Amino acid sequence: MENSSFTTEEITEGLFRFIDNSPTAFHAVQNAARMLEEAGYKKIVCETAIGIRAGGRYYATRNDSALIAFRIPAGEMKGLRIAASHSDSPCFKVKETPEMDVEGHYVKLNTEGYGGMIMSTWLDRPLSVAGRAILMENGRPVTKLVNIDRDLCIIPNVAIHFNREINKGFAYNPQVDLLPLYGGVNPEASSENEEENKGKLKKKSLKALCAESLGVSEEDILASDLYLYTREKGRRMGVDGEFIVSPRLDDLQCAYGTLAGFLAADDGKKTEKEAKKEAQGEYGAVYALFDNEEIGSGTKQGADSTFLSDVIQCICDALELSGSARRDLLAGSFLLSADNAHGVHPNHPEKSDPTNRPYLNGGIVLKFQGSQKYTTDAYSAAVVRNICKEQGVPCQNFANRADVAGGSTLGNISSAHVSIPAADIGLAQLAMHSALETAGVKDTEYLVRLCQGLFL
């Protein structure tokens, strides 16, 4: 991707491909790694500094669901510029031994909620299963990604005739109302004998289906992490195509936009201004894609782990920076935490703060909160606004109403482990944590340009 040459259409098509090919966090990391390798990045083990050199480009993964990439300047490095996002989205996780028989006529899957989803949006739409399976090869556990790439399941609603009050509000029980239908009696094999039909309900297990998709035997799969995902693809909508609708916009829109900007700033072309910066010392560039933000980040692959600090320590070890030199490096660093933001809702504008009201296609959203669940302060906001100004990117603000409890994200969690100035940003969207979410078609491009400016 050449410096500043991309268009809204190219960015949008790239985003849709990335999301469509990333039904789970494992797939998102695989796709990010593929983009990095195509750009010349080399995979390393983040527990060691072996092989890391000045001027190099590297990435490391953890748990197959988190990734950190970085490039080190050939000359003096005066700090790090870091952009972080997350790979996971709210969904349903498939439990162990998931098949459940229903009266000898149906098979449903036993699942549980992952993250704070809008449950009703998952009903009555085509779903499938994806994730990872663990096999043993040469005495070592090996990950194989699984995607049953067809319409496989559905969570059927109860007819209004059996639930007359549903439009007045309904509390879904995830163990009762939200289990997906997986299979039923084969009509070609059924008979008039009820007992014979029950015997013909024996369906291929989900584990067997995964093994078949991988070309291995069922016994080869020792364990798996599988999730439901919606089969809808991203598309443009609106009278002028000004909106995008897609699953997993939170937070794959930011995951893709920050990565595209990270790579766009490294196209090998340097302007006179950039060459002058290089002579004065450059910043190292870091792209972080954490997992498990939707459930609190408190895992070995989440933002509330040592992953980022471990990678930074490897960089410092490779460059023989220790003690005060490492502290000086961090003092000159900056973290941009990118996780989507709530746009003003057209049917409920009263839900938004009276004066901090971001809109779709309105540009980068700076997120503020007095309790510091968002880490933005005056200094970090000024840094972001200055980059936006330099890149010609619009910038708007978000704050919760004082009488509404807000969420949190990566910024304050990450900066507690790596104590550097940080700002929380996002792109305005509607229906956050729905099975399908809505955002602005221009905003991904704005994020790419912001990150390109951050990393130049």
Automatic annotation (TrEMBL):
Organism encoding this protein: Eisenbergiella porci
Origin superkingdom: Bacteria
EC number: 3.4.11.-
Co-factor(s): Zn(2+)
Family that this chain belongs to: Belongs to the peptidase M18 family.
InterPro entries for the chain: Peptidase_M18, Peptidase_M18_dom2
Any single GO CC term annotated in Swiss-Prot or TrEMBL for this entry: cytoplasm
Enzyme class: hydrolase
Pfam families: Peptidase_M18
Biological process annotations from GO: proteolysis
Protein name as catalogued: M18 family aminopeptidase
GO molecular function: aminopeptidase activity; metallopeptidase activity; zinc ion binding
PANTHER family reported in the protein's UniProt record: ASPARTYL AMINOPEPTIDASE
Gene3D superfamilies: Aminopeptidase i, Domain 2 (2.30.250.10), Zn peptidases (3.40.630.10)
Annotated keywords: Aminopeptidase, Hydrolase, Metal-binding, Metalloprotease, Protease, Zinc
